[in-house]
Every structure is written in structure tokens, then in C-alpha cells.
Model the fold of this input.
Amino acid sequence: AKSAGGNRFELADEEADARAITRHGLTTALPTALERGEFFIEYQPLVHLGDGSVRGAEALVRWLHPQHGVLGPDRFIPLAEHTGLIVPLGRWVLEESVRQARVWRERHSDTGPMRINVNLSPCQLSHPGLVQDTVEILERTGVRPDALCLEVTESALIGADDDLLKPLRRLAEMGVDIALDDFGTGYSNLANLRRLPVSVLKLDRSFTQSMQQFPADPVDLKIVEGIVTLAHSLDLTVTVEGVETGAQAEQLRILGCDTAQGWYYARPGPPDRLHELALVDATA
Ligand code: C2E
Ligand code: CA
Ligand code: CA
Ligand code: CA
Done:
């Protein structure tokens, strides 16, 4: 312990040490984990707010660690970004989830195309192979580009120069949707939106949380209403995340949001869960 006396400080030091050891252990285990197939993907449905139908799903990666059990992305994505493993890991997530989208399409030709949303880390964005890898994956799986949506956080694109935007523009021209994730958390230059090759805004969960009461805070209502109006005038679709209650869903629907995602509809789960949800939906 660094400071004199104080068990509290010693404990804090020990915890910090333990965390650092785990971090180090996880970092060194990442490459083998990918080789051994320890990563898996859970899918969370995207639901149309107007009619409640399942329109697609977001792919969310997890790590089944042999000692620590299931780890969420917040535990290892930052480490993978730091070491560069995010590039092969991200490529694996993309291929795996696009394959899954293909399976859904085959089983649910009646419910219309299932779309798949995949998160892109800023490191993948600046990696020169992004466009080619994506094209190859779509070709190998026979999935149309317009069934794929790549999610990039608002903060990754703030102040992005043309070199960073070029691959996204190429993908958008091919028909791939680009979503601005966690929208409203960064310092958002709304006028800047026009410059970005983006077709979907994903409103951050903090907005959804402020819709908890019914009626919600009038200032928050005005803000969301303004964002939705602006987004629609720029031909962007608005998706809301973190919907946990029916009241939130209703409020966001009234405000004109297009699609929603959250525990109220379904937690992230195995791919077959989406089949069930989509089937229930199709026969309702
Ligand atoms: P995100 O892209 O903002 O994903 C939404 C997160 O909110 C997910 O957490 C999801 O499980 C959680 N969530 C969904 N509905 C609700 C709800 O109603 N209430 C609450 N409280 N939470 C909800 P998760 O799965 O832990 O993922 C965390 C973050 O990790 C993601 O945030 C994303 O930034 C990142 N991530 C996940 N998968 C990947 C991936 O394949 N690649 C990269 N680069 N990042 C990923
Ligand atoms: Ca996301
Ligand atoms: Ca998000
Ligand atoms: Ca978020």
C-alpha cells in the first residue's frame, strides 16, 4: 500500500492491482481466444415503432472466457482496440453476423428482409482493408449490401477528415447503411450531419431514460422532437436504444422515432430467439 495506515487505501490498491492483472491476462489471451472460437454473438431485435414488427437485429459480441465466464464487450473491446486485435475480431463479427442474417432471410422470406446491424470500432474505420473485407463477406454470403447497417459512434466521426470518411462513403454508395451510434452524447454539430454518409441516427439511451415518466420532461421532449424533425428532413431514419418500458416506447413513437431496441422488446440473445420473435410477429 502506498499511503500510511488506512485499510481502505490498501484495499483500493489491491483491487486496482487485481484489475490490472486481469486486464493484462485478458489482453494476452485475446489472440488465442479468437483462434479457439471463444467469442460468440448475441442478437437484439430492432422493432418498428409503428407496427411492432421485427425488422432486424444488432450483433453484440461476447467472450466465453474459460476461467471468467461470459464477459461483455466493455471488458475486452477497449483492450482489443489497444492491441489491434479489434481488426480481425471485428472482421469475424461481421462475417458471422452477416451469415446469420442470410439464415434468417432464408427462413423468413415471408416477413421481409431481416437487416443486420454491426458495430465498427474507430480502428476498423481507419484500417485500409475495411471496404474490401466487407465486399468479400457480402459476396461470400450472398447478402445484399442494403441488408447491412454499420454502426459508428458519433464521437468517432467528430472532426473526421475526408480520408476517414472515404471508406464509409464507398460503402454507403454500395447501399450499406451507416448509422451514427450513441447520437446526442458527443458534442453534436447538427449541421455537420449533412457532410457525413449516414442514413440512420441511433439516439443514445440517455434520451430514452428521460422518457421514463409519462409525461416526460418537456425540455427533453422538445430536444428529441427537434432531432427527429431534423433527421427526417435530411432523410435519416431514427432508431432509439435502451427502451425498457411501454411508456417510453409510446412516447418515442409519438415523437416520430422510427425503430426501437431495448429490454422492453427483448434482451440480446442467441440467433434462434430472433426466429421465434419474428415468427410470433408474422402470425400476430
Ligand atoms: P452499443 O452499440 O450502444 O450497444 C447497446 C448496448 O446497450 C448493449 O450493451 C446492449 O446490450 C445494451 N442494451 C440494449 N437494450 C438495453 C436496455 O433496454 N437497457 C439497458 N440498460 N441496456 C440495453 P453491450 O452488449 O454490453 O455492448 C456494449 C457496447 O460494446 C456496445 O454499445 C458497443 O459499443 C460495443 N460492442 C458490442 N459489440 C461490438 C462489436 O462487435 N464490435 C465493436 N467494435 N463494439 C461492440
Ligand atoms: Ca451499437
Ligand atoms: Ca448505441
Ligand atoms: Ca450506447
Q: What stands out?
A: The pocket of C2E (ligand 1) is lined by residues 44, 60-61, 72-74, 77, 90, 93, 119, 121, 181-182, 241-244, 261-263, 268 (CB under 6 Å).
